[in-house]
Amino acid sequence: MPIPATRGREDPFRLEAFEPAYLALHRDGRLSERAEVARRALESCRLCPRGCGARRLEGETGTCRTGRHAVVSSAFPHSGEEDVLRGRRGSGTVFFSLCNLRCAFCQNADISWLHSGEEMDALDLAAVFLSLQERGCHNLNLVTPSHVVPQVIEAVAAAVPGGLRLPIVFNTGGYDSVETLRLLDGIVDVYMPDFKFWRPETAERYAGAADYPERARQAIREMHRQVGPLRFGPDGLARRGVLLRHLVMPSHVEESAAIFEWVAGEVSPDTWVNVMGQYHPAGKVGEPDGQGGVLFPEINRRPRAWEMEAAHEAARRAGLWRLDGRREARLAAESGGAWKGAGR
Known about the structure:
Layout: H1 22-27, H2 30-40, E1 70-78, H3 83-86, E2 91-96, H4 109-112, E3 118-120, H5 122-134, E4 140-143, H6 149-159, E5 168-172, H7 178-183, E6 190-193, H8 200-207, H9 212-227, E7 231-232, E8 238-247, H10 253-267, E9 272-276, H11 305-318, H12 326-334
Parallel strand pairs: 2-4, 4-5, 5-6, 6-8, 8-9
Antiparallel strand pairs: 1-2, 1-3, 7-8
Helix pairs in contact: 2-6, 5-6, 10-11
């Protein structure tokens, strides 16, 4: 496991002592109180920026099509996450079904668009969390959890008396409400948001959410306020902080550059960033448009090697220096060395 690069001999991003944040809330008796406050948010749901007002405690559903209980598609030790999360025993990943975004290119459409999986109450979900811990996972990685924050908090509160001690990773698409994120203050250890689009027009076209860029900026600021830049234990694994992901889209490198400039200038140049190159046409992209063409033709391909190189160069030019390196090396290998952006 490579230890993340640092500036200088003393590592300001190393945590010698660590315990998950939620244990302090539990000891003070505030974790169960937080769960009750979060549960009441389901009475007329405003958890995400959609603000649909669905009466979810009564089983009514809104944009995310999720009612009182979270729907879990799968849960397992994931070895495909970033090195700083997966370690040797995997990241304990819980995939929640359904989503508050409608990304045309969704690579997990079978999970995010369909009600596939098992509805779980707080005790069921707590048992899943504890099972992943028993299997040796390094952390609890909650994927697409924005629409089930109350259910997550209830489950954490139920799992702590059973011995839950894993750091919690909040793995989100970035379309989050600041008010909801504040419910997670002192519960989540690592925030892992996407920042997908810079322009409202792009966000509306591809995700049906013109306000996504502004909402993502607000959310990432709040996440950074809570946990700061990413920090690591002596084993090199992430313990607390923000790990930002950005998926490079074909034909949209200028938006990548704008995002990186904002992150470095308005959040922190010490932000850990994964510049991801695994985009491929999925979801509705490339489907017939009924007029002899295809839907979303401008993104109906993988990003070119030069686009990935330009994105990485834009990140460095903006002043970001903590770039996740594993996928950089893989992309260089896949391009036969044509892409020179790998490594620091």
